[in-house]
Amino acid sequence: MKLKILTILMCVSVNNLFASDISSTTDQVLFTINNIWMLIATFLVFIMHLGFATLESGLTRAKNTVNILFKNISIIAIGLLTYAICGFNLMYPGEFLLGNYFGFAGWGITNPPGIDGLVGYADGAYTYFTDFIFQAMFAATAATIVSGAVAERIRLSSFLVFSTIYVAFIYPIAGSWKWGGGWLDQLGFYDFAGSTLVHSVGGWAALVGAVVLGPRVGKFHKNGTIPIMGHNLPLATIGVFLLWFGWYGFNGGSVLSADPGPVSFVFVTTTLAAAAGVVGAMTVSWSISKKPDLTMVLNGSLAGLVGITAGADVITPMYAVVIGFIAGLLVVLSVLFFDRIRIDDPVGAISVHLTCGIWGTLAVGIFSSEYSFLTQLLGVVSFGSFCLVSALVIFYGIKMIMGLRVSEEEEMIGLDLGEHEMEAYAGFQIFTVE
Amino acid sequence: MKLKILTILMCVSVNNLFASDISSTTDQVLFTINNIWMLIATFLVFIMHLGFATLESGLTRAKNTVNILFKNISIIAIGLLTYAICGFNLMYPGEFLLGNYFGFAGWGITNPPGIDGLVGYADGAYTYFTDFIFQAMFAATAATIVSGAVAERIRLSSFLVFSTIYVAFIYPIAGSWKWGGGWLDQLGFYDFAGSTLVHSVGGWAALVGAVVLGPRVGKFHKNGTIPIMGHNLPLATIGVFLLWFGWYGFNGGSVLSADPGPVSFVFVTTTLAAAAGVVGAMTVSWSISKKPDLTMVLNGSLAGLVGITAGADVITPMYAVVIGFIAGLLVVLSVLFFDRIRIDDPVGAISVHLTCGIWGTLAVGIFSSEYSFLTQLLGVVSFGSFCLVSALVIFYGIKMIMGLRVSEEEEMIGLDLGEHEMEAYAGFQIFTVE
Amino acid sequence: MKLKILTILMCVSVNNLFASDISSTTDQVLFTINNIWMLIATFLVFIMHLGFATLESGLTRAKNTVNILFKNISIIAIGLLTYAICGFNLMYPGEFLLGNYFGFAGWGITNPPGIDGLVGYADGAYTYFTDFIFQAMFAATAATIVSGAVAERIRLSSFLVFSTIYVAFIYPIAGSWKWGGGWLDQLGFYDFAGSTLVHSVGGWAALVGAVVLGPRVGKFHKNGTIPIMGHNLPLATIGVFLLWFGWYGFNGGSVLSADPGPVSFVFVTTTLAAAAGVVGAMTVSWSISKKPDLTMVLNGSLAGLVGITAGADVITPMYAVVIGFIAGLLVVLSVLFFDRIRIDDPVGAISVHLTCGIWGTLAVGIFSSEYSFLTQLLGVVSFGSFCLVSALVIFYGIKMIMGLRVSEEEEMIGLDLGEHEMEAYAGFQIFTVE
């Protein structure tokens, strides 16, 4: 690696890596391809946020659609900005301050000057800026997961405050334990792309939010559960396909290079697990309810994807099918279970992201001989405890200070008119469904 | 290519291609870029399945939307899994068993051990896993094409059985004749990315399905045809744009490397043919019906894309415009023709994929001096005979064993309530359109 | 660069860059990755056209949806074809004919023979065909921007004629002044990816169109403005996310290579500006109207994106946040301003693309020490004058020759029934909103 020292990227003009007088070397070219793949993975993860927005709004009622879309576009913006302000440096602190549990590298993003922020940054795989932007896209995901479970009854401002705190502090601190090189990483815990670090972190907060808020009006009656149907299943389907699509960046980018072996391997395991999740969910839901349930099958593919995420690079394709299939079964049973214990999760976010996130993390300990089941379990429990307590504290704090739930009247007319004085489908005749 | 032998990819840990002690070579880096482009093409082809799902549901009635979405998410899952189980090894058998007509390399996907499955696999262009996953994404396409033509009246389980058989056996066996190095390949038949191997294979089965099922109730009357309008044209438009978008992977990936000359050439021919297809369909439909018909123009772009697919790498940009324009004319005339002979194809799948697939395949023999028109015609006829007979046998078998069509009553209330007990747009006031 | 001379790309067979008998060199591999990144950027810019189509139809009324979708699919086709016929050679004339104001390299696209059109074309960064197709995707954007501002009242054929002329001649001639190496380029004017060259060029014509046409029936009353709500906000949200997604190609591709430093830098500035635009628009609109307005927040992200486009490679991340935030404020104030002066822009296209395009161009002169504010202002004024006059002449010419606006009766029943005899949502009960 002998290229000349570049001027600092942060200054007005960005120097061209190859604009030097020497010919490019093989390492420089390899660096270029690794870096561009990470940026491609970045835009793929970005579009997952559209997937979340459409899935969530499709699976809820028309009268709350504006509210959900507003939350989703806000969360990605807030997640990206807070990650630039403090999240990135909390998650990758370099040095820890409190015994591998907490560290902070300072406010804002600061590109190491010259060649250090460029080719010297990540073993010649990508630049500092690529590292930041790829990780930043992940950050908002956790908060978006919560959004689905608390939909149709949480106050907008309260949700935005919760999300900001959770994504700015809780997600990156927890993440530092593994990806930042913290204590769980040192114990040998494995989570390739975030079954626990992203999906469960969101899932635990989703669970807490759903419990603290209570169910939507009309969801549970003395004699059982009344299903509240989503208002736009094509929209939900768009969401699922976009999430699957973006997952090729989520998992494929988590290789952290364009290395052909692992990236192509991860594409295969990710794909087969998603497909097996569809078949798993189809099998169990068709058996139980005697009818082919579209929303279950859609969630089945996401279940398979969440399930394979922790071990996409270390699970064989055959076991990826097994993991995905079981995730597809689990998500259906989990949805029924949470309905049974009267926790109301409008879009099945807890079942998809928490249940299958735990499953995927443990599955690494089961199907890969390299990792310990007990360490995986320790990781699940540690993340669970931290996230449960944190989410509980934040949600209760918000509840006491500013309130958490909209009025029953507002819930009945819908949050679109109540909070936004706007309709998602102006002109369409829509029945209010309760 | 002198890099050290890598450990087997299928084992617990996937080795890094460049993690060896030697410095990376130019060939290794070229391999990395070729491989990553093929994976990018893979996720582009994946999103075409969302394109099919939205196009097809947008062009049919609201009461059958859940059913169509369910079919589409199921088909991609089934297609991927069956391709892993047997399709890939039927399509690329290595050695043929029956005189270049049929071969089978065994069940499941088996990565050649060590370097052979990695850089030694495809002339240093991509890994075994990349090869599998790229081809697997193509496989489900053929079945999805059928889905459109038989929509709104086929029983869900019957369709799933048909698709599974067709995608697991018929598509790969036919495909082996050309892409697997079989008899048509040896005769000099050319089909770059699948005007015949993918689109016509789906189109022939679509034709058989539409004929065997018969038209939808109310479509044809004594005095002519009653158009049954699609219920959501924004959704259909999303579908067309996503298909066009994905086609950059479908055609661009069919170069089988990132080689700058051919890939950029294919981008240009593909784009210009699609654009010309829009203009062609606009011209003829506006002339005939005196009004600018959105669905015709949308199908025009797909017609141009299907038309250029067989020869995207060997047709000059100017001829790509000609081929696309003619495809745009043809698709409109073909839709009118099938209405005239009372074959009911709700979304125009036969016209787009079969008519223009044939046109594109023959066009290679017309506009490229390198290929013989007669050989192209032979390819069209051979694929047509095989697919027609196969589809006929399977559809009739299913009809006898389990029935093919829903009851007239179910067709009237819609398959969403009939098969799924679910509505796509809960809460919306929708008239039943017959 | 010693690879053997390749045969001409335009002939029947496209030669493989690396199929020669010599081993590939580092420069060849770097060329391959640069070229493939530009093609990736190309398909990202392509999907922005779906973003425009969905955003625009989502923000207008259901009765004009078919019309808008028809315009958008037509414009991309027309834009691509005219760019092949003359646009590309007007924008990049090589030699100017009229003192660096106008040049023309001839009709059609003509690949320089042999190696010159391949690796010798753009300093070893990409092929001739890549250059053409990337630029062609930009071309149609300008016309699409106009579409939003004149929506719901312009005659389809008149709009198509306007767009064809504007995209075929005005856009490329104006563009040649900077990107073609013309007089503004020589004066030191800077516009990285088109705040002025693309967005303002569209925005000026949008302004002229909105003024010449006059407001929609019922929009302005004696006592103020009556908001006409969009009919499908999920569709509009899909549009915004897809535009943001595609912007990674729009700005990322404008680096014109895969060079790791600048591309990753541009990803960061683009992302942070978009996020800050959301927060800026949220802040000001929530303050003014006391309610969280989804459409303002959506436009805020686009405002941030347009704002950063002129300087994405030379603005520091912190200033990118500032520019995006201010753009978010500006777009809201601009929408209110145009309502106040009774210029009716149904989707806010003028505010997003013109107001923020000007802001972004001037911001380069403010936040980057390398560029002069006055030169940036000169560029804005020059483009503005040329586009205003051109658009005025074309719109008035069309108005005199063939008429510009649909009848009031047609406007009331909607252009879908009036121009297309088609409904976007057949079967749905929709109130006519005036």
Structure description:
The structure is a homotrimer of 434-residue chains. Helices cover 63% and strands 1% of the residues of chain A. The first copy, chain A, is an all-alpha fold. Chain A has a single domain (28-417), classed as Ammonium transporter AmtB like domains (Ammonium transporter fold, Orthogonal Bundle). Chain A has a two-stranded antiparallel sheet. In chain A, a hairpin with a 2-residue loop joins strand 1 and strand 2 (224-225). In chain A, helix 1 packs parallel to helix 3 and helix 2 (65-91) packs across helix 3. The first copy, chain A, is globular. Residues 1-23 of chain A have low confidence and may be disordered. The interface between B and C is large, with 71 and 73 residues.
Level of helix content of chain A? Answer: 55-70%
Largest sheet of chain A: 2 strands, antiparallel
- Cα gyration radius of chain A (Å): 22 Å
Q: If you average the pLDDT of chain A, what whole number results?
A: 92
Oligomer: homotrimer
Helices and strands of chain A, in order, run as HHHHHHEEHHHHHHHH
Biggest sheet: strand arrangement of chain A:
1-2
Question: Pair with the most extensive interface?
Answer: B-C, 71 and 73 residues
Summed up, the helix count of chain A is 14
CATH-level-2 architecture of chain A: Orthogonal Bundle
| Total number of domains of chain A | 1
Q: From the 3D structure, determine the CATH topology of chain A.
A: Ammonium transporter fold
CATH superfamily of chain A: Ammonium transporter AmtB like domains
